[in-house]
Amino acid sequence: MKPFRFRAVVNGRPVELTVAPNRRLLDVLRDDLGLTGTKEGCGEGECGACTVLLDGRPVNSCLVLAPEASGKKIVTIEGLSEDGRLHPIQQAFLEAGAVQCGFCTPGMILAAAALLEENPRPDERAIRTAISGNLCRCTGYVKIVEAVRLAAVKLAGEGGKA
Ligand code: FES
Ligand code: FES
Fold first, then answer.
1. Ligand 2 pocket, CB under 6 A
2. Residues 122, 152: contact at Cβ < 8 Å?
3. Are strands 73-75 and 4-10 parallel, antiparallel or unpaired?
4. 13: buried, middle or exposed (CB in 10 Å: 19+, 13-18, 0-12)?
5. 60 has which bridge partners?
6. What is the pLDDT of residues 62-121, one digit of tens each?
7. Is 88 in the pocket of ligand 1 (CB under 6 A)?
8. Residue 38 and residue 4: Cα distance in Å, rounded?
9. To test ligand 2's pocket by mutation, which of 100, 109, 146 has the most ligand atoms within 8 angstroms of CB?
10. Across the strands, what pairs with 58?
11. What pLDDT digit, counting tens, does each position of 94-110 carry?
12. Residue 117 Cα, ligand 2 centroid: separation in angstroms?
Protein backbone atom coordinates (compact mmCIF):
# COMPACT_ATOMS: atom_id res chain seq x y z
CA MET A 1 0.00 0.00 0.00
CA LYS A 2 1.46 3.33 -1.06
CA PRO A 3 2.06 5.68 1.89
CA PHE A 4 -0.06 8.79 2.01
CA ARG A 5 1.14 12.28 2.81
CA PHE A 6 -1.29 13.64 5.37
CA ARG A 7 -1.48 17.40 5.68
CA ALA A 8 -3.93 19.22 7.90
CA VAL A 9 -4.28 22.02 10.38
CA VAL A 10 -4.77 20.44 13.77
CA ASN A 11 -5.79 22.74 16.61
CA GLY A 12 -4.48 25.68 14.61
CA ARG A 13 -1.12 24.08 13.89
CA PRO A 14 -0.09 22.82 10.43
CA VAL A 15 0.74 19.13 10.55
CA GLU A 16 2.35 16.94 7.91
CA LEU A 17 3.10 13.25 8.19
CA THR A 18 3.32 10.09 6.15
CA VAL A 19 0.75 7.43 7.02
CA ALA A 20 -0.78 4.31 5.54
CA PRO A 21 -3.80 5.38 3.45
CA ASN A 22 -6.09 3.15 5.49
CA ARG A 23 -5.04 4.69 8.78
CA ARG A 24 -7.94 6.07 10.79
CA LEU A 25 -7.99 9.74 11.75
CA LEU A 26 -8.48 8.57 15.35
CA ASP A 27 -5.11 6.77 15.26
CA VAL A 28 -3.35 9.67 13.57
CA LEU A 29 -4.56 11.95 16.34
CA ARG A 30 -3.93 9.67 19.30
CA ASP A 31 -0.87 7.70 18.25
CA ASP A 32 0.96 9.90 15.75
CA LEU A 33 0.16 13.31 17.24
CA GLY A 34 -0.23 12.30 20.90
CA LEU A 35 -3.66 13.92 21.20
CA THR A 36 -5.09 11.33 23.54
CA GLY A 37 -8.03 13.47 24.66
CA THR A 38 -9.91 11.91 21.74
CA LYS A 39 -11.17 8.56 23.03
CA GLU A 40 -11.90 5.25 21.38
CA GLY A 41 -15.02 3.55 22.66
CA CYS A 42 -16.73 1.29 20.15
CA GLY A 43 -14.53 1.87 17.10
CA GLU A 44 -17.68 1.47 14.98
CA GLY A 45 -19.32 4.88 14.84
CA GLU A 46 -21.82 4.14 17.61
CA CYS A 47 -20.60 5.92 20.75
CA GLY A 48 -19.23 9.34 19.75
CA ALA A 49 -16.27 9.13 22.16
CA CYS A 50 -13.95 9.78 19.23
CA THR A 51 -15.76 12.94 18.05
CA VAL A 52 -13.59 15.72 16.61
CA LEU A 53 -14.45 18.72 14.47
CA LEU A 54 -13.57 18.45 10.79
CA ASP A 55 -13.93 21.85 9.17
CA GLY A 56 -16.26 22.70 12.05
CA ARG A 57 -18.46 19.63 11.68
CA PRO A 58 -18.53 16.89 14.32
CA VAL A 59 -17.39 13.52 12.96
CA ASN A 60 -16.59 10.14 14.44
CA SER A 61 -12.84 9.99 13.88
CA CYS A 62 -12.91 6.18 14.09
CA LEU A 63 -14.83 6.18 10.80
CA VAL A 64 -12.72 8.76 8.95
CA LEU A 65 -9.62 7.66 7.05
CA ALA A 66 -6.57 9.91 7.04
CA PRO A 67 -6.93 10.83 3.34
CA GLU A 68 -10.52 12.01 3.96
CA ALA A 69 -9.33 14.39 6.67
CA SER A 70 -6.29 15.61 4.79
CA GLY A 71 -6.38 19.27 3.75
CA LYS A 72 -8.95 20.07 6.43
CA LYS A 73 -9.07 21.89 9.73
CA ILE A 74 -9.31 19.51 12.66
CA VAL A 75 -10.14 20.49 16.22
CA THR A 76 -9.75 18.07 19.11
CA ILE A 77 -10.54 18.66 22.76
CA GLU A 78 -6.95 19.85 23.27
CA GLY A 79 -7.66 22.67 20.82
CA LEU A 80 -10.41 24.26 22.90
CA SER A 81 -8.52 25.53 25.94
CA GLU A 82 -6.36 28.60 25.53
CA ASP A 83 -3.22 29.41 27.53
CA GLY A 84 -4.11 26.72 30.06
CA ARG A 85 -7.58 28.21 30.61
CA LEU A 86 -10.58 25.98 30.11
CA HIS A 87 -12.96 26.86 27.29
CA PRO A 88 -16.36 28.11 28.58
CA ILE A 89 -17.98 24.86 27.44
CA GLN A 90 -15.46 22.83 29.45
CA GLN A 91 -16.05 25.10 32.43
CA ALA A 92 -19.81 24.68 32.09
CA PHE A 93 -19.49 20.87 32.06
CA LEU A 94 -17.54 21.00 35.31
CA GLU A 95 -19.88 23.46 36.98
CA ALA A 96 -23.01 21.55 35.98
CA GLY A 97 -21.59 18.26 37.28
CA ALA A 98 -21.77 16.77 33.78
CA VAL A 99 -18.44 14.97 34.07
CA GLN A 100 -18.31 11.66 35.92
CA CYS A 101 -15.86 9.12 34.49
CA GLY A 102 -15.12 11.65 31.74
CA PHE A 103 -14.76 9.14 28.92
CA CYS A 104 -17.56 10.64 26.84
CA THR A 105 -16.74 14.22 27.79
CA PRO A 106 -14.34 15.28 25.01
CA GLY A 107 -16.75 14.06 22.33
CA MET A 108 -19.76 15.61 24.09
CA ILE A 109 -18.00 18.96 24.39
CA LEU A 110 -17.01 19.00 20.73
CA ALA A 111 -20.55 18.07 19.68
CA ALA A 112 -21.76 20.93 21.90
CA ALA A 113 -19.20 23.32 20.41
CA ALA A 114 -20.45 22.58 16.90
CA LEU A 115 -24.06 23.07 18.00
CA LEU A 116 -23.40 26.37 19.77
CA GLU A 117 -21.44 27.70 16.83
CA GLU A 118 -24.47 27.11 14.62
CA ASN A 119 -27.20 27.78 17.16
CA PRO A 120 -26.06 29.94 20.10
CA ARG A 121 -29.39 29.57 21.95
CA PRO A 122 -30.48 25.96 21.52
CA ASP A 123 -33.54 24.58 23.29
CA GLU A 124 -33.50 21.22 25.03
CA ARG A 125 -34.63 19.38 21.95
CA ALA A 126 -31.83 20.88 19.82
CA ILE A 127 -29.29 20.00 22.50
CA ARG A 128 -30.51 16.43 22.77
CA THR A 129 -30.46 16.07 18.98
CA ALA A 130 -26.92 17.46 18.79
CA ILE A 131 -25.59 14.97 21.35
CA SER A 132 -27.71 12.06 20.17
CA GLY A 133 -24.66 10.35 18.63
CA ASN A 134 -22.70 10.61 21.89
CA LEU A 135 -23.30 7.94 24.50
CA CYS A 136 -22.78 8.48 28.22
CA ARG A 137 -22.94 5.57 30.61
CA CYS A 138 -22.74 7.66 33.76
CA THR A 139 -24.81 10.82 33.85
CA GLY A 140 -28.23 10.06 32.42
CA TYR A 141 -27.77 13.11 30.15
CA VAL A 142 -29.74 15.57 32.31
CA LYS A 143 -26.61 17.27 33.60
CA ILE A 144 -25.05 17.26 30.16
CA VAL A 145 -28.08 19.09 28.73
CA GLU A 146 -27.82 21.54 31.64
CA ALA A 147 -24.12 22.01 30.92
CA VAL A 148 -24.75 22.86 27.27
CA ARG A 149 -27.40 25.38 28.36
CA LEU A 150 -24.97 26.93 30.82
CA ALA A 151 -22.27 26.99 28.13
CA ALA A 152 -24.64 28.92 25.86
CA VAL A 153 -25.13 31.51 28.59
CA LYS A 154 -21.38 31.77 29.21
CA LEU A 155 -20.62 32.15 25.51
CA ALA A 156 -23.32 34.77 25.08
CA GLY A 157 -21.61 36.69 27.90
CA GLU A 158 -18.37 36.53 25.95
CA GLY A 159 -19.96 37.90 22.80
CA GLY A 160 -20.64 34.50 21.30
CA LYS A 161 -17.05 33.22 21.11
CA ALA A 162 -17.11 29.45 20.46
S1 FES B 1 -15.10 5.10 18.96
FE2 FES B 1 -15.82 6.21 17.27
S3 FES B 1 -17.95 6.24 17.50
FE4 FES B 1 -17.27 4.97 19.12
S1 FES C 1 -19.26 10.65 32.16
FE2 FES C 1 -18.81 8.52 32.05
S3 FES C 1 -19.49 7.96 30.08
FE4 FES C 1 -20.15 10.01 30.30
1. 99-105, 136-139
2. yes
3. parallel
4. exposed
5. 51
6. 999 999 999 999 999 999 998 889 999 999 999 999 999 999 999 999 999 999 999 999
7. no
8. 22
9. 100
10. 53
11. 999 999 999 999 999 99
12. 23
State the amino acid at position 106 in one-letter form: P
Give, as one character, the DSSP assignment of residue 87.
P
Q: At residue 35, what are phi and psi to the nearest 5 degrees? A: -90, 80
Nearest ligand, measured from the Cα of 144? 2
Ligand 1 centroid distance, CA of 159 (Å) = 33
Q: Which of 46, 108, 131, 134 to mutate to test the pocket of ligand 1 (most atoms within 8 A of CB)?
A: 46
Q: Supply φ then ψ for residue 27, to 5 degrees.
A: -75, -35
For the chain, strand residue ranges (E) read 4-10, 13-19, 51-54, 57-60, 73-75
